[in-house]
Amino acid sequence: MCGWLLTLLLVAAPAVAESQRLQTAREHVQKGRFDEALELYDELTRDAVDPARVAIGKSRALLAVGRLGEAAQLLQKAAGDSPDDASLLGRWAGIYFQQGQFDRCEKVARRALLLDSQQPRARLVLADVLAETGRLDEANDGYRWFVGFYNRTQPQDAETLLIVARGAVQYARWNGVSQVFDFVVNTLCPDALAADELSWQSHHLAGVLLLEKYNREQALPELRKALAINPRAAEVLVALGEAALQKRDFTAAESFADRALEINPALVPALQLDADIALANGRVGPARASLNKAADVNPHDQTTLAGIAACELLRSSARDEELRALLRAFDADGDARAEDASDSAVSRLASDLAGRNPRPGLFLTRLGAALESRRQFESAELLYRRAIAVMPQLSEPKTSLGMLFMRVGKIDEAEAMLDDAFEADPFHVRVANMRKVISLLEGYDTISTDHFVIRVDSAADRLLGRYMAEYLEEIYAELVEQFGFEPQRRTQFEIFHNASGISAHQWFSARMVGLPWIQTIGASTGMVVALASPTAAEEPFNWARVLKHEFVHVITLQQTKFNIPHWLTEALAVTSEGAPRPIEWNRMLVERVPAGELFTLDTLDQAFARPSSPDDWQFAYCQSRIYAQYMLETYGEDCIGRLLEAYRLGLTTSDSIQRVFGVTQDSFEAGYRRYLEESVRSLRVGEPPTTASLAELEEAHLSDPRDPRSRAAYAYGLLQAGRSRRAKQLATDALAAGAPAPLAAIVLSELELAGEDVEQAKRVLQQALDDDRPHSQLLQRLARLEFSDRKYSQAAELYELGRKNFPDDPEWRRGLAGVYWKQGDNARLKPLLEELAQQTPGDVSVRKKRAEIALAEEDYSTAIRFGRLALHIDVLDADLHAILGEAYAATGMREQAVSEFEAAVEVQPDDPPLELSLAKAYIAANRLADAKSLLEQVVSQRPDHAEARKLLETLD
Q1: What burial class does residue 810 get, using C-beta atoms within 10 Å of its C-beta: 0-12 exposed, 13-18 middle, 19+ buried?
Q2: What distances in angstroms separate CA 953 from CA 868, 911, 915, 921, 946, one per listed residue?
Q3: Residue 63's Cα: distance from chain center in Å?
Q4: How far apart are CA 158 and CA 701, in angstroms?
Q5: In contact, 847 and 884? CB cutoff 8 Å
Q6: Helix 396-407 to helix 377-390 angle, to the nearest 10 degrees?
Q7: Which one, of 830, 826, 825, 800, lies nearest residue 815 by Cα?
Q8: Angle, CA of 373, 405 and 314, to the nearest 5°
Q9: What DSSP designation does 187 have?
Q10: Contacts 24+ apart (CB under 8 A), 42-46
Q11: Residue 530: in which H helix or E strand, if any?
Q12: pLDDT tens, 584-639?
């Protein structure tokens, strides 16, 4: 080897090794191995390897774990040692920005730009500082610079590409240049990944931008890819938490926030997410605590300040006055007027912010969103409007105001605002969905009454809308009198049907939240009620019950200025329905009350907002209703009105209870628990179906193999799993032990049925039946077998036994009604049908049958009552309308008869008997022209229809 070449290699080798170590340290940071990175950077510092690069790399590792102060000191020292390094200065300025030290940030950023006017990070930080201090035109120029810089230089490295992307996105947000978002997500971020496969920041930026547009379908894969590269990227965890919060999955959101804060306890967005979760659950104190921590890191962050202001306003008894003082700090032209502010925490916060930034559009928007989430709609509207006035370049407050207008039923105003928002940002999913909702509603029929405006699909639900309007007017006076409150304007109901390949429920969901799914079939904002049409539902439901429930929400929310807690408005809405507790609720009570698994007034709202299971969500409704029953029975009928007044005044639940009931919350809760325990002692619902897994049943059996009950339960589980041979052996052994083992009898009976030996199946059950203490599942199976075998007398005896022993389960009445229905025993059937009509709100058949019996017996008032109740479930049943038509006609209610027969013909056209009945109703109502027109139509279509022809001749 030549001597000069050997010398060159010896000189180059240390440089290559140093570069490799730097690259390894950077890789540690990118993959979230922060401790390893810091250790390696310390070694490199001791070895005096490229101090500037080491300082930048180490500062990134320190920032990732929340050590901002150390990172700032490190970069400050490095900048002193390398005063001409603009990149170092740009990093240093960025930390000052994260700490809210805007003056220092601007000074360092400008110093960097004097050294290198093209330094991207310094450019971005300076533009951000200008925005945060209200110099919006200069800031906009700063963001625009990135578009030109990219076009001029075509940068290739990942870091520069992402800085350009962030600057360009902010320019796009302010100027409505929507194509920039597409370019960033689909070009810049992929280019950055191509340049650096460890650039999780590229996936993160794309995911955040998509999530900003509520495009979860594309956002979540991007965020998961970022996390795959760096499992400890706290910023990505925060974004995933925000995605979970969008779906109100509070458990997941909280988990992501906790994980992020465990990695980086000083990450302001993570602390803000923690506060958002707490506020969404009504926990103002914990929210304020998280925001205080965020303010310790950056006292000037607009989102943090908005959260703090929201907490103060939500806890204030002078909320309106303080909000007005806050708004006075910002004139529409952006000039501060701090001298007009009152001396409250909110006013001081606003005064300080106005002195620093007279155009804080983000602060005003985020504060509006926080108050809107607590249904403070008027306050939110004022804040959104002021945000638009002081910072018209922001699209977020326009979007928020448009969505708010939809929540309160101002559809015309919403349309104009959302059109503007969509023009600026066509990728925003919620905006796009809500504009589709508005377009759909424009084609709907509008039915206006004295107190309601009802919008329905003009083709599918015109008839439903008419009956809904009548029903709502019927209940209006009763509810207004009951609650002592009348809404100031007509309440809007919107009934969504299938359209354009989208289900009714998806349209309803889009109407409420701009996204395709929420859990319920109906919902109220307190100003507007929307629901999926019952005529489009897979399962029928009692729409009248839903309307009443939701209108009670409208009353109680408005009555209390939206201060009523969730549990109480649900308690009053469910109580208003008037139906007995469902069997599922009674079973949960029997299981949970003795075990002490109860919600309290402090946890009940969270059970609605973040249930751990569907059962918990249902149990929250159950307990809320019983709280209302306890209050009414213990403290009198007027206590509810006094409690609502306490909430209207802004009192807490604890203070409201003390004021209204004269006891502490603890004492009230103790009384409620005694009431609940007493109520549960009298419940008899039978054995619930087992929810244990096969493995759990096997473990219980093996722990005591000689116990016939655990053996029978395991046999039953084996049967359900298809392991019949082993199930039969265990069941036979269990019955042979002599102790009662009804599940074993059920197993053997099912096996006999599989062999089509019905008589033997019945004998097995009969032998195991204890008349004094029957097992509900065994008894139910035996009764069904007798019924299927047409042994109606035996079936009736068994169903009567079930009703006697388990009176809180309506299934025994249903079975008994089926027997009497088959036997034609109307005398016994009628009271059962009336009981079932109360206990099963969604069962149209029992109401219809009761109406048919009443009509046949010429009990017209009863026919009308149950016919109308049946229409509350199925308004498209022509037979029901005909029953009502005949009953009305028989009682001389001629116009009502006409109306019902018209409905019958509308539902079932070209039906000669119905058309003839309608013609007769027209004649009785002296509407001869209508009768003649209809009969001529019938005769023209059916010339051989003798009765129609004869009736027509009488009119000539």
Answers
A1: buried
A2: 35, 21, 16, 16, 11
A3: 35
A4: 62
A5: no
A6: 150
A7: 800
A8: 25
A9: I
A10: 44/18
A11: strand 528-532
A12: 999 999 999 999 999 999 999 888 877 778 899 999 999 999 999 999 999 999 99
- Find the angle CA(590)-CA(593)-CA(594) to the nearest 5 degrees: 85
The C-alpha angle 777, 779, 785, rounded to 5 degrees, equals 105
Among residues 888, 944, 890, 951, the alpha carbon closest in space to that of 919 is found at 951
Q: How far apart are CA 732 and CA 182, in angstroms?
A: 69
**Domains, the chain, ordered by start:** 139-207 (no CATH), 285-426 (1.25.40.10), 443-559 (3.30.2010.30)
- Per-residue pLDDT tens for 327-371? 999 875 544 444 444 678 899 999 999 999 999 999 999 999 999
Rounded Cα–Cα distance for residues 125 and 102 (Å): 10
pLDDT tens-digit readout, 779-821? 999 999 999 999 999 999 999 999 999 988 889 999 999 999 9
> Which backbone phi and psi does 445 adopt, to 5 degrees?
-75, 145
Sequence-ordered list of residues with C-beta below 8 angstroms from that of 840, at least 6 positions apart, any chain:
810, 814, 846
Residue among 927, 917, 928, 918 at smallest CA distance from 954: 928
- Residue for token pair 């800085």: 163
Report the C-alpha gap between 945 and 642 in whole angstroms: 66
Residue written as token pair 């995911």: 207
Q: Which residue has the tokens 């998961």?
A: 224
pLDDT at 9 over 50: no
- The rounded distance, in Å, linking the Cα atoms of 281 and 828 is 50
Rounded to 5 degrees, φ, ψ at 452 are: -140, 155
E-only strand ranges, 471-527: 491-496, 522-524
Please state at what angle helix 396-407 crosses helix 411-424, rounded to 10 degrees.
Answer: 150
CA nearest 308: which of 246, 401, 370, 380? Answer: 370
Q: With a cut of 50, say whether residue 8 has pLDDT above it.
A: no
What is the secondary structure of 9-54 as a DSSP string?
HHHHHHHHHHHHHHHHHHHHHHTT-HHHHHHHHHHHHHTT--HHHH
Block residue for tokens 């207008």 = 405
Is residue 494 within 8 A of residue 452, CB to CB? The reply is: no
> First-to-last CA distance in the chain?
126
Measure the CA–CA gap between 621 and 607, rounded to whole angstroms: 9
Q: Judge contact between 21 and 49, C-beta under 8 A.
A: yes
Q: Which residue has the tokens 């109606």?
A: 792
Q: SS3 for 328-359, per residue?
A: HCECCCCCECHHHCCCCHHHHHHHHHHHHCCC
Q: Are strands 528-532 and 452-456 parallel, antiparallel or unpaired?
A: unpaired
Dist. CA 763–CA 299, nearest whole Å: 79
- Secondary element (H or E) of residue 453: strand 452-456
* pLDDT-derived band at 16, boundaries 50, 70, 90: low
Which candidate, 364, 365, 287, places its Cα nearest to that of 330? 364
Look-up of token digits 């448009």: 402
Which residues, 6+ apart, have CB-to-CB distance to 919 below 8 Å?
931, 934, 935, 938, 948, 951
Sequence-ordered list of residues with C-beta below 8 angstroms from that of 329, at least 6 positions apart, any chain: 336, 337, 338, 340, 341, 347, 350, 351, 353, 354
Tell the burial category of 126 from Cβ atoms under 10 Å away from its Cβ (0-12, 13-18, 19+): buried
Residue 496, beta-bridge partner list: 532
